[in-house]
Amino acid sequence: MGFDQRVHTLPNSGCDCGLCCGQDWAASCTLAYAFDDWAMSELSDLLGKPQATVNYFAKRSLSYRKTFDPESRFFCPRFRNGTFSCPAEFAPELVQGGDKVGGYAEGDAWQWRWFVPGDVPGLIELLGGRTSFVKELETFFDKTPGFIGGTALVNPYYWAGNEPDILAPWLFSLAGRPDLTAKWTRWVLDRYYTTKPDGLPGNDDFGTLSAWAVWAWVGFYPLTGTDDYMLGSPRFPHIRIKPQGGGPVIDVRAHGASATAVYVSGCTWDGQNLTRPVLSHAALARGGALECWMTAAQAEAAWVEK
After folding, report:
1. Cβ-based neighbour number of residue 195 at 10 Å
2. Looking at beta carbons, which pairs linking 196-205 to residues 24 or more positions away fall under 8 Å?
């Protein structure tokens, strides 16, 4: 909240809010708080709170847009006078350990660029529309393998051990390119998740990375705070999910699944063709069968929007 009682962003310096501004984490904290506000709006609506309360938090959640610099097209720290403080080059600025990068906590400008889980359509719009968004997101991943250790070690692009960006490969599915979600989630699983002592690409943080791997192997992933699960690339021919304590069972069958058959050419849920790469929580909670057909040919992938 600014001195004029309007919602802005967390200023890059000169305020007394300790963890964020005091350590120059203004950009990442603004994005994180915007997500918190969006979650509060969703929860308020679910609990039947007054519409004014729902709207209040929904409007405040859009504060992330005020930290978006249209020139660099990144979310950057912003000073009280409205000017941005964007890093000139992103790669050299990632500190070992991910502890603090000017304006960002636990990551850098590239990694926090995708942290708008409460308004993915708005993020796509900010980055110039679906085609431009996909191109920028592809760049984020294309640059990763060139770094020593790839995504297993600290690097300025996609880092599988870094929570702010672990949603990123799934965003392709929400932008009309589920084939790229399949490509990159499989790439991460095949290279950075093993049974060796170093078989996790970072600190598991109470199971975060292990849970990511399980979702990716099963072939779908939850978009936090929504009823949606984005489809990816089922790794095994048959997986059965049995809820602890009993309840509806979910059967996942991936015909032709293999190390090379990465792409999904089509899926059904309880015998009905899926027209988009999304499952609802309500459907999964009732139990049922997800049946997919796998292919090694990216050109045969389903739901791709050109």
Report:
1. 5
2. 198/152, 200/161, 201/151, 201/152, 201/159, 201/160, 201/161, 202/152, 202/159, 202/160, 202/161, 202/162, 203/161, 205/163
pLDDT digits (tens, 9 = 90+) for 59-118: 999 999 999 999 999 999 888 888 888 876 554 444 433 444 578 888 888 999 999 999
Q: Are 238 and 253 in contact (CB under 8 A)?
A: yes
Write down how long the chain is. 306
Q: Which two tokens stand for residue 260?
A: 């090379």
pTM confidence score: 0.88
pLDDT score, position 88: 67
Q: Is the pLDDT of residue 16 over 60?
A: no
Query: What's the 3-state SS for the chain?
Result: CCCCCCCCCCECCCCCCCCCHHHCCHHHHHHHHHHHHHHHHHHHHHCCCCHHHHHHHHHHHHHHHHHEECCCCEECCECCCCCECCCCCCHHHCCCCCCEECCEECCCHHHHCCCCCCCHHHHHHHCCCHHHHHHHHHHHHHCCCCCCCCCCCCCCCCCCCCHHHCCHHHHHHHCCCHHHHHHHHHHHHHHHCCCCCCCCCCCCCCCHHHHHHHHHHHCEEECCCCCEEEECCCCCCEEEECCCCCCCCEEEEEECCCCCCCEEEEEEECCEECCCCEEEHHHHHHCEEEEEEEECCHHHCCCCCC
**Domains of the chain with bracketed CATH:** 1-113 (1.20.1610.10)
Confidence at residue 75, expressed as pLDDT on a 0 to 100 scale: 93
The CA distance from 115 to 135, in Å, is 17
Rounded to the nearest angstrom, the gap between the alpha carbon of residue 27 and the centroid of all alpha carbons in its chain is: 17
